[in-house]
Amino acid sequence: MHERNIAEQSTPFWWEAAPVKPLPQQSLAKELDVLIVGAGYAGLAAGLVLARAGRSVAAFDAMSPGEGASSRNGGITSGSIRPDHATLSRRFGEKKALAIEAEGKLAREFLYDFIEVERLDCDFQLTGLFRGAIGHEQYESMARSAEALAKRLGIESYAVPHTEQRHYIGTDFYRGGTVRMDIGGLNPAKLHAELLRVALAAGVTVHSNTSVSSIARDGSGFRVTTVAGTVQARQVLVCTNGYTDGATPYLRRRLVPVRSRIIATEELAPEMMARLMPKRMMMGEGLQLGFYYRPSPDGRRILLGGRDSSRVGDPAAPTLRLHKGLVTRFPELENVRLSHSWFGNVAMNRDMLPRIFEKDGVLYATGFCGSGVVWAPWVGTRAAHKLLRSSEHPCSAFDFRPPAFIPLYRGNPWFMPAVIQGYGMQDRIAMWRASR
């Protein structure tokens, strides 16, 4: 039984259309205006702005560009803010909370405009997102939040009662839900490949498989040591997120890499896809360890993702957990084979907010908390404007103090299995309450 459910491939489904490859080796520049650590969405978006402003820019990636989260994520343009409005207001004040939420809208609009203006071929579709409620009590709370979101930001957002749920998703697992129409889907590996193409054309030099080992002050600039040699840089921007390593120990103590895994089904019959996902929307749900899922861009498969509590290797258990979640929501998929199962790291911090901050002259653009498709290009772009000291672009709401450090943590997330077990217990309690 278990062998039948193991996926055929352990590489991302997205790589079928946009394989991730190393770039040809290039010689190091002795001096740069800006050196960027990381060549994912954030690093390339920043490099593009800087190169077009006339700066000499090089981005260094420890892997092939895009091999990390930029080509492994679910391709949902959520731009989620994990703390709710009440939590943001309590922590930062009402004004800051409103600014953070408003910037989420700006960031999505920026991404959509960027895709159109730069003619990025990444299968983007503005489909909307349905979020399922676990029980009637949660439905009422979500319905109020949808109404408040529409009033505060003018986003098309509304509740879907259980009686109308099947118009949006072919399951009775939820007790209604909400829809917001400003979220869509794309192929994340294609988005990165297109962003890389545009950045290279603008003059950004990208070094693949060239890790940075240290960043040190050197007069008015920095001396950056890489496996290929040393570079003098006037400014340094770090955009490593879930793949942060020992080169930036200050950041490493503040970001926790968390595995997220995604499975993809084999191609399904058109009539089955029409029953299960009649509007081809992106999907989420109101659980701490809830799944996110969606149709593939061609509408032939279902992709489902969630947290992976394993820490080493590529064990079968997390794949089987996702398969069970898929079948619980869509029982008719029980005998459907999985074509792909893969994982990648997202980066969480104690505030659960993206961040731009400066420490000892180095600028950081990071902490996307599982929503990097929207946040990484936006935060990278805003960081670039900060380096340029551009008066045309106001300060980002995410440009403030660094995330707090995590006690007893030096980069090894030894505590994550226990954290995930705790979240799982909360979800079991929520499911029990919903079933009463």
From TrEMBL:
InterPro entries: FAD-dep_OxRdtase (IPR006076), FAD/NAD-bd_sf (IPR036188)
Cellular component terms per the entry's GO annotation: cytoplasm
Protein name: FAD-binding oxidoreductase
Entry keyword annotation includes Oxidoreductase: yes
Lineage of origin: Bacteria, Pseudomonadati, Pseudomonadota, Gammaproteobacteria, Oceanospirillales
Keywords, sorted A to Z: Oxidoreductase
Pfam families in the record: DAO
SUPFAM superfamilies: FAD/NAD(P)-binding domain
GO MF entry, a single one: oxidoreductase activity
Superkingdom to which the source organism belongs: Bacteria
Annotated ranges, domain FAD dependent oxidoreductase: 33-384
PANTHER family, A to Z: FAD DEPENDENT OXIDOREDUCTASE DOMAIN-CONTAINING PROTEIN, SARCOSINE DEHYDROGENASE-RELATED
